[in-house]
Amino acid sequence: MSASTILPQGAGYGVVIGMGLFFSLLMIGITWMQTRYTSHKTSSAEEFNSASRSVPPGLIAAGIVSAWTWAATLLQSSATAYKFGISGPWWYASGAAIQILLFAMIASKLKQNAPYCHTYLEIIRARWGKVAHLTFLFFGFATNIIVSTMLILGGSATVSSLTGMNTVAACFLIPIGVSIYVLTGGMRATLIADYSHTLVLYCILIAFALTAYGTSNIIGSPSKMWDLLAQAAEEKPIAGNAHGSYLTMRSKSGLIFGVLNIVGNFGTVFNDQAYWQRAIASNPRTSVKAFLWGGIAWFGVPLGIATSLGLSAVALAHGENPLITLTSEEVSAGLPAVKAAGALMGQSGATAMLILLFLAVTSACSAEQIAVSSLLTYDVYGSYINPNPSEKQILWVSHLCIFGYALFMGAIATAFNYIGISMGYLYELMGTIIGCAVVPIALCVTWKKCNAKAAISGAILGFLAGVAGWLGITSKLNDGVINVETTFGDYEMLTGNLLSIGVGGIITVVWSLLQPDNFDWDITRNINVQTETNITEHSQPQSPITDQRIIEKEKEINGTEEASPEYAQTERVVEEQPSDLVEEREGLKKAFRFAAWSALTLVILLIFVIPLPLFFSSHVYPKSGFTVWVCVSLIWLFVGLAMVGIYPMWEARKGLMQVARGIAADLRGKRT
Ligand SMILES: NC(N)=O
Fold it and tell me: How far is CA 576 from its chain centroid?
């Protein structure tokens, strides 16, 4: 064991390679059972990439939580608690949960307006053409690359800090291990692996919280933590916080981080095919529920770990005999939680942290790999290289892209490591690079008036404004010095993030209002309709029905949908029971209204109603208030465990029984 690491190097290799192999074997087993005992075969491209669009809400919610739980969710959230006190966990959790909640509305519009697409870029291509497609493909890939790099940087920094494992080896071995299980299982098995990861993740988070606030000899109660935090503030008050305290929402840097977090995370949800893919894989009737549940359950993850380990790091790094020390580079790399776990729980804490990070990073990596593979397969290969691919070719290209992207993830994370760009830096920068595409992408599937030129110009000019503003303000505030350190300032990052999303959004909306498009959603509703019926192995296409019938019936019901004469005359073959189609669209409209009300209410509560009065009143929590805060964070973890750890099992009971009956029949020799 290296003198400076809490675990031996072998533990790092053991977890990365051993657990990678374990999950690959598990995936082979799940895929085999899925193929043998259920109707879902991964030899179908539709099943491999979109899980036949039939996944129930609990499993999708677990998949959302696991894709959205990055290394940064655990590490960066705790680093914000270390830097800003309790406002850090709040702003991290609320500033990144609202996008998932709002995406519930997009998910329902997606099911209404492009029910058979494989990627959101297919919608952009069908609606706005090739230039828009290429423009947003750039922002889509930029999002996946930034997210993947942060994942691998965070994961490898943790593994090498805890075990001394070679960082480059970790950078490559983590994504390659993940690619093996993604290759084996495709989308559905990946969601099942996500579920198992999420279950263990919640259990470890609960164990950390109970140790920090219940059993630890060093802290052990909210009251003792309050004392230690008060002492830390006396020793080293936080500039910009009320009374320099860690126990207040009144934190200037915390609030700036909150804004950065909100902007950046809009980009990493709305531009990331991984979330569209979960909406696509979802059963249409329950996609809204899945995203609302996912957002609510996920909120507890950063809030819980940052309240326990982030604040523990503050307590342990101060006082007469600090148990841990943290350099600013280590804080930027997200290591306060890692060091706190080791100091509070010794080797068992370090091992739990290693496993936690491994699970979070691998499940988020798997989401990124399958997302990038879908973009490359459908939007590059299928759009520009081979417009009429066979199912075999789609599967072959998907597999190749998953493995190729795993190698790319390792290489790019290694490069960032060498040039000294940390996960924390990328986290604050991401909104500047990708925020500009958020509004056009969201409007592509929700607003018929949004015009193509406005969307393309908005995204490109927003990007240029964001980057120019970020670098310009850096130069102005730092005497012309532009480097990694100066560009990482609060105001520098804030300027870039706000300009990018603001300019992109304003240009897109204002131009579209001045020159409104009048898009016919039937064009996007027809994406892949013919292909789907041809390639879906098990679907039994119903007799063809005409759009005219659908449109007329729809008019009878609500009198709103306008029929395009051109489309009304075409015959459309659909995959689902056609007689259900109109009722289904009505159901989706209701679901959209429900998503809008619930998501907007939660957003207003989480971003305005709860934190802002606490900020403006400069309230510093007394012991009783802090104890309530700790209890809420713990309860939220248990609620999350119930929502995405226990509920999916209940939901899957019939499928599990079917598999169990199949296995029993096999054992009795009654099945061939
Ligand atoms: N997924 C995030 N932003 O932690």
Answer: 29
Atom 1 (ligand 1): residue with closest C-alpha? 68
- The helix (run of H) or strand (run of E) holding residue 546 is strand 545-546
Task: Note whether residue 567 is domain-resident.
Answer: no
pLDDT band with cut points at 50, 70 and 90 for residue 580:
low
Nearest CA to ligand 1 atom 4: 73
What CATH number is attached to the domain comprising 614? 1.20.1730.10
Q: What's the total number of domains in the chain?
A: 1
What atom in ligand 1 is closest to the CA of residue 302? 4
Q: Tell me, yes or no, whether 85 lies in a domain.
A: yes
> Cα(533)–Cα(538) distance, rounded to whole angstroms?
9
Q: Is residue 27 part of a domain?
A: no
168: number of Cβ within 10 Å: 16
Cα 19 to Cα 25: distance, rounded to the nearest angstrom = 10
H or E element that contains 545 = strand 545-546
DSSP state of 563: P
Q: Bin 319: left if φ > 0, else alpha if -120 < ψ < 50, else beta.
A: left
Q: How far is the CA of 466 from the centre of ligand 1 (A)?
A: 21
Domain enclosing residue 136, as ranges: 55-423+582-651
> φ and ψ at 571, to 5 degrees?
-95, 135
Rounded Cα gap, residues 7 and 358, in angstroms: 15
- CB of 72 within 6 A of ligand 1: the answer is yes
Q: What atom of ligand 1 comes closest to residue 264's alpha carbon?
A: 3
Residue written as token pair 């056009």: 440
**Distance in angstroms (rounded) separating the CA atoms of residues 554 and 550:** 6
* pLDDT tens by residue, 39-57: 777 667 777 777 777 788 9
Whether residue 459 is contained in a domain is answered as no
Q: What's the rounded Cα separation, in Å, for the pair 195 and 647?
A: 11
Q: What is the ipTM of this complex?
A: 0.99
Residue 252 token pair: 């200037």
Mean pLDDT value across residues 244-265: 95
Q: What is the pTM of this model?
A: 0.88
